[in-house]
Amino acid sequence: MSSLREVPGKMFQLAENRQEAGRELRDCVVETLQELMKDDDKITALEADLGGASGFTKIKKTNPERFIQCGIAEANMMGVAAGLSLTGFKPFTHTFAPFATRRVFDQLFLSGAYAGNTINVYGSDPGFSVASNGGTHTAWEDVALIREIPGAVICDPADDVQMEWIIKEFLKMEGIHYVRSNRKAVRNVYKKGSSFKIGQGNILKEGKDILIIAAGQLVSEALDCAEELEKEGYSVEVIDMFTIKPLDEKLLIKEAKGKSKIVTIENHSIYGGLGSAVSEVIAENGISVPVKRIGVKEKFGQVGTVEFLQEEFGLTAKQIKETICQF
User: Fold this and answer.
1) From residue 292, how far is each of 216, 266, 295 by CA, in Å?
2) Distance (Å, rounded) from C-alpha 310 to C-alpha 128?
3) Quick one: which of 144, 226, 157 has its CA closest to 198?
4) % of residues, the chain, pLDDT over 90
5) Rounded CA gap, 161 and 25, in Å?
6) Are residues 54 and 169 in the same domain?
7) Is there a domain that residue 190 lies in?
8) Structural domain boundaries, residue 26
9) Quick one: which of 315, 163, 168, 170 has its CA closest to 240?
10) Are residues 117 and 208 in the same domain?
């Protein structure tokens, strides 16, 4: 298909070489915040003792008055962020995904959303990207939790191009905004300069038989899988549903009709995440197409390399293809 697709008021292009990796996502976040801080003195970065891991210590060097080290006290960090929001600042917080969601849920819900404050949250290394930090630092449930916060926005970027756009967009908005991603580099999906729209999915590949809906770094695996399935005669459509909340229901309903099967792929539990969100829309709108949720089911995290864990939890392109063929 053509690499260029247009959506109302926006445009994106697919990367010319999807096998190459882009910037490390943590560098993307830090560099984007540093750029925005030049023109907006209200942006403030908050960290929970992981500045070395996230790169936020670079912000401390360039903008010391705009950086707050909260220590290993994540709930307190969200309380501080809420207070900053009350006084007109734009807080952007970081810690590992389980600590950015599960550990601080009450603060985000009450001090953040219920009180009408704005808190931007970067939860890093969700799912198998946790690598050697292991089960205590693994989040398979972060999306499920944040979906329960009224008005919250949840994004899972496919690459650094999309991540940069999301950071910039979040800082224009009010409310609770959560972005989850690997800290390290992931494969390119989009060409630099692409733009998007919150709440609008992107059709990356058109097809008539199977509809694959993916988010985050597994968008690359979804495209790989689609290419392999097409060699066997299937016509496969791939949607990057990078905004999990609010979900693009209109696009989903339109593209689901007439398909033989729908498959969701996520680096998350199959409960409460992208797969659940998609299934809810399909069921409520009476669309008679079977849905297969590919993700993690009833498991805790464990220690290993990213490559080992991705295979251990059945989320490689090869394993995804096998699951689809058996469905």
Assistant:
1) 18, 11, 10
2) 6
3) 157
4) 96
5) 9
6) yes
7) no
8) 22-181
9) 163
10) no
Give yes or no: residues 278 and 316 share one domain.
yes
Cβ-proximal residues to 318 (8 Å cutoff; 6+ apart), any chain: none
- Catalytic site residues? 74
Q: Which residues make beta-bridge pairs with 180?
A: 123
Q: pLDDT of 181-197, one tens digit each? A: 999 999 999 999 999 99
Is residue 201 within 8 Å of 296, Cβ to Cβ?
no
Element (DSSP H or E) covering residue 62 = helix 57-62
Q: Is 131 helix (H, G, I), strand (E, B) or coil?
A: helix
C-alpha closest to that of 76 among 115, 48, 110, 45: 48
Asked if the model's pLDDT at residue 283 lies above 60, the reply is: yes
- What are 116-144's pLDDT values in tens digits? 999 999 999 999 999 999 999 999 999 99
Classify residue 2: in a domain, yes or no. Answer: no
Contacts of 118 (CB under 8 A, 6+ apart): 85, 90, 91, 112, 173, 174, 175, 176, 177
CATH number at residue 97: 3.40.50.970
Question: Cα–Cα distance between 310 and 315 in angstroms, integer?
Answer: 5
- Please compute the mean of the pLDDT values over residues 82-110 and round it to a whole number: 98
Instruction: For residues 72 and 137, give the distance between their C-alpha atoms in angstroms, rounded to a whole number.
Output: 13
User: Max CA-CA distance within the chain?
Assistant: 59
Q: Backbone dihedral region of 25: left (phi > 0), alpha (psi from -120 to 50 degrees) or beta?
A: alpha
pLDDT in tens, 70-85: 999 999 999 999 999 9
CA end-to-end span of the chain, whole Å?
A: 26
